[in-house]
Specification:
Blueprint lengths: L1 E7 L3 E6 L4 E5 L4 E3 L2 E5 L6 H5 L2 E5 L9 E5 L4 H29 L3 H7 E8 L8 E2 L2 H9 L5 E13 L4 E13 L5 E15 L2 E11 L8
Parallel strand pairs: 5-7, 8-13
Antiparallel strand pairs: 1-2, 2-3, 4-5, 6-7, 8-9, 10-11, 11-12, 12-13
Helix pairs in contact: 2-3
C-alpha cells in the first residue's frame, strides 16, 4: 500500500511505501472521473479499480479537478493508518535492539543499564541453563570480557511481535565478527529473542534468551 504526494501532476507522482521505500510512477494521463483525479497505487488506472476501491484524500492543486484521490484496492484508510503505526513501532524496537548490542560491543556498561530493566532475566550459554536475574551476572563480562580488538555485529531477519502499546518481542539471528589478540578473524552466530517493555515512555529490555551454535566469547 502506498501513500502518494502529487506536487506536479503533469510530470510525475512520487509514492512512498509503508516499508520506507520510494518508487516513481510515470505520469501519462491520470484517470479523471466525476471531476476527481484518481491515482492508482498499484499502477492500474481503470474505472473498475476506482469504483471498487477505497480512497485517501490527497493534498494537491489542479486546475481540472476538485480533489485528488489515491486508489487503494487492498486496504481501507483505517487499516492503512494502523499498518503505518505498527511498522513505525517495529522499526523502533529494531533500533533499540541495535543500540543495546552497540553498548555491548563497545563495553558501555552504563549505556547497557539504561536500556535494560534492573531486574532483567536471561537464559544464555554462560549461565549453563540457569535463569539469571539482575545486572551483576552481566557486569562481570563487561568488566572482564575485553579480549577482542574489533567487533562488528549484523542482525539478520529481525521479526517483531507487537503486544499492545507497551510490550514487544523481537527474534533475530546475530552474527558477530571479531579479531582476537593474535589478529585472527572469527565469526560467531547466536539466535536471540528479546522482550521489551515500555515504561515512562521509554523502552527497556526485560528478558532475553540466547542460543549459540558456535563457541561463545561472553556476549550478552
Amino acid at each position: 500500500m502506498q501513500v502518494c504526494e502529487a506536487p506536479n501532476l503533469q510530470n510525475s507522482v512520487v509514492c512512498h511505501l509503508l516499508k520506507q521505500q520510494t518508487i516513481l510512477l510515470k505520469s501519462g494521463t491520470p484517470l479523471t472521473l466525476n471531476n476527481h483525479i484518481y491515482i492508482s497505487c498499484d499502477g492500474s488506472d481503470s474505472s473498475e479499480d476506482v469504483e471498487n476501491s477505497h480512497y485517501i484524500p490527497l493534498t494537491g492543486e489542479s486546475d481540472d479537478a476538485d480533489e485528488i484521490r489515491i486508489v487503494c484496492p487492498n486496504k481501507t484508510c483505517s487499516q492503512l493508518s494502523t499498518s503505518s503505526y505498527g511498522s513505525a513501532r517495529k522499526q523502533e524496537i529494531i533500533k533499540m535492539t541495535e543500540q543495546l548490542i552497540e553498548a555491548i560491543n563497545t563495553g558501555d556498561y552504563e549505556g547497557y543499564t539504561k536500556i535494560c530493566d534492573p531486574h532483567l532475566t536471561a537464559f544464555e550459554p554462560e549461565a549453563l541453563g540457569n535463569l539469571v536475574e539482575g545486572m551483576d551476572f552481566h557486569k562481570f563480562y563487561f568488566d572482564n570480557g575485553k579480549n577482542c580488538k574489533a567487533l562488528n555485529t549484523t542482525i539478520l531477519n529481525p521479526h517483531v511481535h507487537l503486544m499492545g502499546d507497551e510490550a514487544a518481542c523481537i527474534a533475530y539471528v546475530r552474527l558477530t565478527q571479531y579479531m582476537d589478540k593474535q589478529g585472527q578473524a572469527h565469526t560467531h552466530q547466536s539466535e536471540e529473542t528479546r522482550v521489551w517493555h515500555k515504561r515512562d515512555n521509554k523502552w527497556q529490555n526485560v528478558h532475553f534468551h540466547r542460543s549459540s551454535v558456535t563457541p561463545s566469547f561472553a556476549m550478552k
